[in-house]
Automatic annotation (TrEMBL):
Residues 1-166 form the Rab3GAP regulatory subunit C-terminal domain. It comes from Spizella passerina (Chipping sparrow). The lineage of its organism: Eukaryota, Metazoa, Chordata, Craniata, Vertebrata. This is RBGPR protein. The gene is Rab3gap2.
Protein backbone atom coordinates (compact mmCIF):
# COMPACT_ATOMS: atom_id res chain seq x y z
CA UNK A 1 0.00 0.00 0.00
CA UNK A 2 1.04 3.55 -0.69
CA UNK A 3 1.13 5.79 2.36
CA UNK A 4 0.81 9.48 1.64
CA UNK A 5 2.46 11.65 4.27
CA UNK A 6 2.64 15.37 4.65
CA UNK A 7 5.96 17.11 4.01
CA UNK A 8 6.27 18.23 7.63
CA UNK A 9 6.19 14.63 8.85
CA UNK A 10 8.93 13.53 6.43
CA UNK A 11 11.54 15.79 8.03
CA UNK A 12 10.79 14.62 11.57
CA UNK A 13 13.53 12.52 13.17
CA UNK A 14 12.90 9.67 15.55
CA UNK A 15 12.01 6.01 15.59
CA UNK A 16 10.29 4.39 12.64
CA UNK A 17 6.50 4.43 12.87
CA UNK A 18 4.68 1.23 13.72
CA UNK A 19 2.84 1.33 10.38
CA UNK A 20 6.12 1.33 8.45
CA UNK A 21 7.45 -1.49 10.60
CA UNK A 22 4.30 -3.53 9.96
CA UNK A 23 4.57 -2.98 6.20
CA UNK A 24 8.17 -4.17 6.21
CA UNK A 25 7.22 -7.53 7.75
CA UNK A 26 7.10 -10.56 5.48
CA UNK A 27 3.64 -11.93 4.78
CA UNK A 28 2.80 -15.22 6.45
CA UNK A 29 1.75 -18.31 4.56
CA UNK A 30 -1.80 -18.78 5.85
CA UNK A 31 -2.15 -22.53 5.12
CA UNK A 32 0.95 -23.10 7.24
CA UNK A 33 -0.67 -21.18 10.10
CA UNK A 34 -3.80 -23.33 9.74
CA UNK A 35 -1.59 -26.41 9.86
CA UNK A 36 -0.03 -25.17 13.12
CA UNK A 37 -3.52 -24.44 14.47
CA UNK A 38 -4.58 -28.04 13.84
CA UNK A 39 -1.57 -29.30 15.81
CA UNK A 40 -2.31 -26.91 18.68
CA UNK A 41 -5.94 -28.02 18.79
CA UNK A 42 -4.90 -31.67 18.78
CA UNK A 43 -2.42 -31.08 21.61
CA UNK A 44 -4.99 -29.14 23.63
CA UNK A 45 -7.59 -31.88 23.22
CA UNK A 46 -5.08 -34.52 24.34
CA UNK A 47 -4.18 -32.48 27.39
CA UNK A 48 -7.67 -31.32 28.36
CA UNK A 49 -9.42 -34.65 27.90
CA UNK A 50 -6.51 -36.67 29.37
CA UNK A 51 -6.20 -38.93 26.34
CA UNK A 52 -3.62 -41.64 26.83
CA UNK A 53 -1.50 -43.32 24.18
CA UNK A 54 -1.98 -40.69 21.48
CA UNK A 55 1.07 -39.68 19.47
CA UNK A 56 0.13 -36.31 17.97
CA UNK A 57 2.74 -36.30 15.22
CA UNK A 58 1.50 -39.67 13.97
CA UNK A 59 -1.63 -37.84 12.76
CA UNK A 60 0.46 -36.10 10.09
CA UNK A 61 2.44 -37.40 7.13
CA UNK A 62 6.13 -36.61 6.58
CA UNK A 63 5.43 -33.38 4.68
CA UNK A 64 3.10 -32.25 7.45
CA UNK A 65 5.63 -33.03 10.18
CA UNK A 66 8.41 -31.19 8.34
CA UNK A 67 6.20 -28.12 7.90
CA UNK A 68 5.90 -27.67 11.68
CA UNK A 69 9.53 -26.68 11.98
CA UNK A 70 9.61 -24.06 9.22
CA UNK A 71 9.25 -20.30 9.36
CA UNK A 72 5.63 -19.15 9.00
CA UNK A 73 6.61 -16.80 6.17
CA UNK A 74 8.05 -19.59 4.04
CA UNK A 75 5.97 -21.35 1.44
CA UNK A 76 6.04 -25.03 2.39
CA UNK A 77 4.75 -28.16 0.77
CA UNK A 78 1.79 -29.14 2.87
CA UNK A 79 0.04 -32.51 2.80
CA UNK A 80 -1.83 -33.10 -0.42
CA UNK A 81 -5.33 -34.53 -0.75
CA UNK A 82 -4.02 -38.09 -1.13
CA UNK A 83 -3.44 -39.62 2.28
CA UNK A 84 -2.17 -42.98 3.38
CA UNK A 85 -5.12 -45.13 4.57
CA UNK A 86 -3.21 -45.98 7.77
CA UNK A 87 -2.82 -42.28 8.61
CA UNK A 88 -6.52 -41.71 7.95
CA UNK A 89 -7.35 -44.60 10.25
CA UNK A 90 -5.17 -43.14 13.02
CA UNK A 91 -6.85 -39.74 12.57
CA UNK A 92 -10.30 -41.29 12.69
CA UNK A 93 -9.47 -43.21 15.87
CA UNK A 94 -8.16 -40.01 17.46
CA UNK A 95 -11.31 -38.03 16.67
CA UNK A 96 -13.52 -40.82 17.98
CA UNK A 97 -11.44 -40.91 21.19
CA UNK A 98 -11.98 -37.16 21.60
CA UNK A 99 -15.75 -37.54 21.23
CA UNK A 100 -15.88 -40.53 23.60
CA UNK A 101 -13.83 -38.74 26.26
CA UNK A 102 -15.96 -35.60 25.95
CA UNK A 103 -19.21 -37.55 26.37
CA UNK A 104 -17.76 -39.49 29.29
CA UNK A 105 -16.71 -36.24 30.96
CA UNK A 106 -20.12 -34.70 30.30
CA UNK A 107 -21.86 -37.76 31.76
CA UNK A 108 -19.69 -37.77 34.88
CA UNK A 109 -20.32 -34.04 35.42
CA UNK A 110 -24.07 -34.65 35.02
CA UNK A 111 -23.94 -37.28 37.78
CA UNK A 112 -22.16 -34.86 40.11
CA UNK A 113 -24.91 -32.26 40.24
CA UNK A 114 -23.02 -30.17 42.79
CA UNK A 115 -20.23 -29.53 40.29
CA UNK A 116 -21.33 -27.39 37.38
CA UNK A 117 -19.75 -27.53 33.96
CA UNK A 118 -18.23 -24.07 34.51
CA UNK A 119 -16.50 -25.35 37.63
CA UNK A 120 -15.07 -28.25 35.63
CA UNK A 121 -13.83 -26.02 32.80
CA UNK A 122 -13.62 -22.45 34.11
CA UNK A 123 -11.78 -21.15 31.03
CA UNK A 124 -13.86 -23.06 28.50
CA UNK A 125 -17.32 -21.63 28.92
CA UNK A 126 -19.39 -22.93 26.04
CA UNK A 127 -16.66 -25.26 24.71
CA UNK A 128 -18.32 -28.09 22.84
CA UNK A 129 -15.72 -30.80 22.27
CA UNK A 130 -17.77 -32.97 19.89
CA UNK A 131 -18.39 -29.94 17.65
CA UNK A 132 -14.70 -29.11 17.81
CA UNK A 133 -13.90 -32.69 16.79
CA UNK A 134 -16.28 -32.40 13.83
CA UNK A 135 -14.62 -29.14 12.79
CA UNK A 136 -11.21 -30.74 13.16
CA UNK A 137 -12.39 -33.60 10.94
CA UNK A 138 -12.49 -31.20 7.98
CA UNK A 139 -8.81 -30.37 8.42
CA UNK A 140 -7.85 -34.00 8.97
CA UNK A 141 -9.80 -35.23 5.91
CA UNK A 142 -12.21 -37.38 7.91
CA UNK A 143 -15.96 -37.47 7.34
CA UNK A 144 -17.79 -35.14 9.73
CA UNK A 145 -20.84 -37.40 9.58
CA UNK A 146 -18.80 -40.26 10.99
CA UNK A 147 -17.80 -38.13 13.98
CA UNK A 148 -21.36 -36.90 14.52
CA UNK A 149 -22.78 -40.43 14.31
CA UNK A 150 -20.26 -41.61 16.88
CA UNK A 151 -21.26 -38.70 19.13
CA UNK A 152 -24.94 -39.71 18.95
CA UNK A 153 -24.08 -43.36 19.63
CA UNK A 154 -22.00 -42.34 22.66
CA UNK A 155 -24.84 -40.20 24.01
CA UNK A 156 -27.26 -43.11 23.71
CA UNK A 157 -24.80 -45.55 25.29
CA UNK A 158 -24.42 -43.28 28.34
CA UNK A 159 -28.19 -42.98 28.72
CA UNK A 160 -28.44 -39.39 27.54
CA UNK A 161 -31.17 -40.15 25.04
CA UNK A 162 -32.65 -36.64 25.14
CA UNK A 163 -29.35 -35.17 23.93
CA UNK A 164 -28.91 -37.94 21.36
CA UNK A 165 -32.29 -37.16 19.84
CA UNK A 166 -31.34 -33.52 19.39
Amino acid sequence: PVLDTEDTWVSVEGPVSIVELALEQKRIHYPLVEHQFVLCTVLYAIMRLSLKGVKPLSLFDSKGRNAFFKDLTSIQLLPSGDMDPNALSIRQQFLLKVVSAAVQMLCSSQKDREVSEEDYFPFEKGKNWPTLAADLAQYLQISEDLVRRHYVCELYSYGMDHLGEE
